[in-house]
Amino acid sequence: ARTVTRDEDGTVTVGGIEVTRLAEEFGTPAYFLDESDFRARCRAWADAFGRDADVFYAGKAFLSRAVVRWLQEEGLNLDVCSGGELTTALDAGMPAERIAFHGNNKTVAEIERAVTVGVGRIVLDSFQEIARVAHIAQRLGKRQRVQIRVTVGVEAHTHEFIATAHEDQKFGIALAGGQAAEAVRRALALDGLELTGIHSHIGSQIFDMAGFEVSARRVVQLLAEVRDEHGVELPEIDLGGGLGIAYTSEDDPREPHEIAKALGDIVTRECEAAGLATPRISVEPGRAIVGPTAFTLYEVGTIKPLEGLRTYVSVDGGMSDNIRTALYDAEYTVALVSRTSDAEPMLVRVVGKHCESGDIVVKDAFLPSDLAPGDLIAVPATGAYCRSMASNYNHALRPPVVAVRDGGARVIVRRETEEDLLRLDVG
Ligand code: LLP
């Protein structure tokens, strides 16, 4: 479904529009998001999981009103983790019952709002929150549907997963030591709560299904314990998000249908073994849906060759529009897109314009050695966790997100202006 192409004469187009034209019209830096690709990915997830499962797009990866509308049109649900994300979702018309509310420290105001509008589920993350949500729901005369987030003793990071790494992190309630069983006991005893299931999210940018399998198995074991102790079969399990995408050619992502099959098989098998009816499965992909759909377009400003080392290419953005390289040592690729070049490749580091030496966008890459100021370069796969984690560091103006589709382009998040900056500064 991807509509980025490079013609024989070197012209790069996205959604039928030449990138040079996009730069002229919308400026740089800017994120260009391929709407058809986004929608196709939503459909692929929805189709793969089918009618007996639910897909919740994780809004933290990137959220805007247009995105919320696309999700609705393509039949997805939405996971939010703050009052701000909830507001965006509701404002764009997402029905509250299709929203799941997450977070390890939801405020009382956020919980009140979520319960009042009637979100489909609140994912409870601590013992205090179990009591807090129950109390608020009761006070508001409601019974809130909730899941309990458990930590299953699997922590997945990029390519590997490490068992028993769960004790030392802030999310969820440990299965170990009977903690999660105690959380279920408490939730079942509270009138304000309708406990519908168990939630587990094991990490992000994962390629190996083994971590998910361990997670699913342990969650099903808990369901069996709950049945044995309380005579209740919880009807839902959520296995979180975290499916990896290809940032470079070394990454080999799983397809939604492979993931759906692997998760479905393991849950069915474990439930059969435990004598449980198969619960309704849900998942929460963020990166896997939006990540590959956008690229960032930058203009080259200065070029500094360092003898025997590499050439530093400075662009008009940086860590304020993509913090991932500085924060996680994330790997990206880069390409010259405003023209073709037959010049020899040179080793470059693409850096931003911020006052930090760690302000790196692409750590190691090759660009043609005739690269010049004014050239446009594109960094692909910046749809997830780039605009959503963008900052105003050095009073940078956060770039716009432009949706491109069928030869048309429209701004869905506008570029910040200096007036925006000054408006907040009321001293
Ligand atoms: N569900 C829960 C409960 C989560 O905490 C997350 C991500 C997701 C779903 C979606 O995960 P995804 O499918 O997008 O991997 N800023 C980091 C990623 C942080 C992910 C936090 N939670 C990054 O840029 O790599």
Automatic annotation (TrEMBL):
Residues in Orn/DAP/Arg decarboxylase 2 C-terminal domain copies: 297-383
**What's the catalysed reaction?**
meso-2,6-diaminopimelate + H(+) = L-lysine + CO2
Q: Which GO terms describe its molecular function?
A: diaminopimelate decarboxylase activity
Orn/DAP/Arg decarboxylase 2 N-terminal domain location = 37-291
The record lists substrate as bound by: 287, 324, 328, 356, 385
**Keyword Disulfide bond set for record:** no
Q: Which PROSITE patterns match?
A: ODR_DC_2_1, ODR_DC_2_2
Q: Which controlled-vocabulary keywords does the entry list?
A: Amino-acid biosynthesis, Decarboxylase, Lyase, Lysine biosynthesis, Pyridoxal phosphate
Which InterPro entries does UniProt cross-reference here? Ala_racemase/Decarboxylase_C, DAP_deCOOHase_LysA, De-COase2_C, De-COase2_CS, De-COase2_N, De-COase2_pyr-phos_BS, Orn/DAP/Arg_de-COase, PLP-binding_barrel
Q: How does it assemble?
A: Homodimer.
Q: What does this protein do?
A: Specifically catalyzes the decarboxylation of meso-diaminopimelate (meso-DAP) to L-lysine.
Protein name per its UniProtKB record: Diaminopimelate decarboxylase
Name the species this protein comes from: Streptomyces pulveraceus
Q: Which gene encodes it?
A: lysA
